[in-house]
Amino acid sequence: MSKRNSQASKTAARERLRQERERQAKRSKAKRQIIVACSVVAVLAAAGGIGYAVVQANKPTHWEAVKSDKVVAPANTTGTNGTTVVIGKATAKKTLKIYEDPRCPVCAQFEQTVGSTFKKDLDAGKYKFQYVGATFIDNKDNGEGSKNALSALGAALNVSDEAFLEYKTALYSTKWHPDETSDKFKDDAYLIKVANTVSALKNNTKFQDAVKKGTYDAWAMAMSKTFDKNKDGVTGTPGFVMDGKQLNKGTPLLTVADFNKVVGAALKA
Questions:
Q1: CA-to-CA distance for 203 and 187, rounded, in angstroms?
Q2: Predicted model pTM
Q3: Which of 108, 198, 220, 264 has the CB geometry, 3.0–4.6 Å to 150, for a possible disulfide?
Q4: pLDDT digits (tens, 9 = 90+) for 60-79
Q5: DSSP letter for each residue of 182-220
């Protein structure tokens, strides 16, 4: 082989090697660009995910949101936002105000033992009844049942006073009232099932639509606020007040004898 051919071969070999290095460099650069791009996408996705999670975490719950909604007050109510609920004969001279939370087990006990006596007194015109609904039990377990049941009670009140009273009795009954740790009242279907045991509410589509649509959700929150800011000094349920004075002061009236004694004394005062 001549020196010329040998030199040409070496030059060609060096050129092929240079070209191969350039191809390797281009591939490495492209690979780095892909990795960087993927990393940027991953970071943006993670940031977006975190941002979405933060937004969702800070987003108010349905019940928080309805606090600012316009209140639709049920029929048979008066006062600001329809939060004054008074039932009974106009001739009754005094009013027994009762504070209750739908999930409250002691309220259920009161209704089951004293409820029929209370209803007889109401029908006899011994006193009027003012209802104040509370939802503080929901705060203990991030529940919704007290609020949802209070909204459903608003839907019942919109039908009639009697429908409201009968429905409240049904919700507190041994058959339907859940254990305090169970949030069954958050389920609209369960509330409607209970309502179907009340003659005025059975298969009542207007009532059922109001429950499903949450027509009285904002009213329930307004009513709950009435409890939270009450000036009677009531901090728990059931609470009993007449003439601005607490009748039980933290001690529930769970027997007919105790109820008659305390309320009877207040009526004479």
A1: 17
A2: 0.79
A3: 220
A4: 589 999 988 999 999 999 99
A5: --GGG-HHHHHHHHTTSTTTTT-HHHHHHHHHTTTHHHH
